[in-house]
Specification:
Radius of gyration: 31 Å
Helix content: 40-55%
Shape: elongated
Number of domains: 2
Oligomer: single chain
Number of helices: 15
């Protein structure tokens, strides 16, 4: 085992060492490819999917409106969004403690775009890692020039396309189409921002690459806090593999193909490292070697440090099962919150600066401001009624009509008989009805004279 004091992509002088990763092949890579393409399809398709004419997901920060799988969230839903965010953070922590950095290798956008899009284009145009290393090290020839030109042109086109897809998540595809049809001068600032984001996107995947994972992303460094001996990670079975060498007793023949295929350039045989994204490329590569050597596969596999040490045949234990149950409960809470969120949210507050009014008809009145937010995709015709007292309501306007995803605001006066006002401050219950169906109850304060 070797030890190091710097990232694998830096040399002794601190200069960048380019990682020429070999293209993986094998069962795990096929599964990861299908997963990556599925997530890419989801990323591209979401802005075009409609539910009752509205986007499946829309993160409209400017208007403070968020649509998540058809459910609309407004600024008034901050508490619910905070609960969802807290649940998500807890999910990530528990998931990492149990399953390591599976997210990084299988679902992280950085990994998917780099490994499933940009590196595949590079393999297709420039060849495998040996050909690419010779091409970069060699002089500028016609072959090198046209390959680099084609590769970077495709990279730029993909960067611009993905930036516009990403933009549709925030403004919707119809608005983006309208902006594209308009002259550039009418949206010059937005156009320049789009070009700047595309340039960053291109720079990351054409040059910066794995340094996002090894130098910038904090998630890898969280491993030291979140992972323990029972966490399931991509592990090298040193019990089987050592001592190394084809003439030794260990199964590892020290071919270093696990290093050649690693997208961050590490040696998995040195144990868990913060650069490892658990992409399984080394598992596939090592299994190919084991089959050729007529040795048992899975010298590198998903396992825990305890499992490697004690020779467990299963990655499952009591703790992993318990954490998995908690993860399912957290996900269930997320779904429950989305499903049970109120469709109509009503706020009723006494008008500031106004006291009660004693009227000639032996009633006492208070003035209220009312705001109703419609979180559904349908128009709602509503009624306001007093539930707890025999009062009368006079509302500005003849009816309450809230458009889909709209907001209705009005002022109304509540009249209560004097004999029912027994305190200077009392609670009154209002009901919001749609036809004869009660859909929400609101409690407010009614102010009257002191006894």
């Amino acid at each position: 085992m070797s030890f190091r004091d710097r990232p694998t992509n830096l040399d002794d002088q601190g200069n960048r060492k380019w990682v020429y990763a070999k293209q993986p092949k094998g069962r795990w890579y096929t599964l990861r490819t299908l997963t990556g393409w599925g997530l890419l399809l989801f990323f591209i398709a979401v802005p075009f999917i409609r539910i009752n004419g509205y986007p499946l997901v829309l993160l409209d920060i400017a208007d403070r409106k968020f649509i998540i799988f058809g459910a609309i969230f407004w600024a008034q839903d901050t508490f619910i969004l905070a609960l969802l965010m807290l649940s998500f953070v807890l999910f990530i922590i528990l998931f990492t403690v149990t399953y390591g950095r599976v997210w990084c290798g299988w679902a992280c956008p950085q990994t998917i775009f780099l490994e499933m899009v940009f590196r595949r284009i590079e393999f297709w145009i420039e060849g495998d890692y040996k050909k690419r290393r010779r091409l970069d090290a060699g002089p500028w020839t016609f072959e090198k020039a046209w390959k680099k030109l084609v590769k970077h042109t495709v990279f730029i086109l993909i960067s611009v396309a993905m930036t516009n897809v990403f933009l549709m998540w925030f403004i919707g595809n119809e608005k983006l189409y309208a902006i594209i049809r308009d002259p550039i001068r009418e949206h010059l600032n937005g156009f320049l921002i789009m070009l700047a984001v595309s340039a960053v996107f291109y720079w990351i995947y054409s040059w910066f690459r794995e340094q996002i994972c090894t130098m910038i992303c904090p998630y890898g460094r969280m491993q030291g806090v979140l992972l323990d001996g029972q966490s399931i990670v991509v592990s090298y079975d040193y019990q089987r593999g050592e001592p190394r060498g084809s003439n030794e007793k260990g199964d590892c023949i020290d071919c270093r193909r696990c290093v050649a295929v690693c997208p961050t350039g590490i040696d998995i045989r040195n144990g868990t490292q913060f650069e490892c994204i658990h992409c399984t490329a080394c598992i596939d590569e090592c299994n190919q070697v084991m089959r050729k050597m007529d040795r048992q596969p899975n010298l590198i596999r998903y396992d825990s440090a305890v499992g490697i040490l004690k020779g467990h045949t299963s990655i499952w234990n009591t703790r992993n099962r318990a954490y998995s149950v908690v993860l399912l409960l957290l996900f269930g809470f997320f779904v429950y919150t989305l499903v049970t969120r109120p469709a109509i949210e009503t706020t009723i507050l006494r008008t500031p600066g106004l006291l009660y009014q004693e009227n000639q008809d032996n009633t006492i009145s208070n003035v209220y401001n009312m705001k109703i937010v419609n979180k559904t995709h349908t128009d709602r015709a509503l009624n306001l009624k007093v539930l707890s007292h025999g009062g009368k309501i006079e509302i500005a306007g003849s009816k309450i009509f809230v458009e889909d995803q709209g907001m209705f605001q009005t002022t109304f006066i509540l009249y209560l008989p004097k004999e029912e006002v027994k305190k200077d401050k009392m609670t009154v219950d209002f009901g919001i009805f749609e036809e004869d169906k009660l859909i929400e109850t609101v409690k407010v304060t009614f102010v009257g004279p002191r006894d």
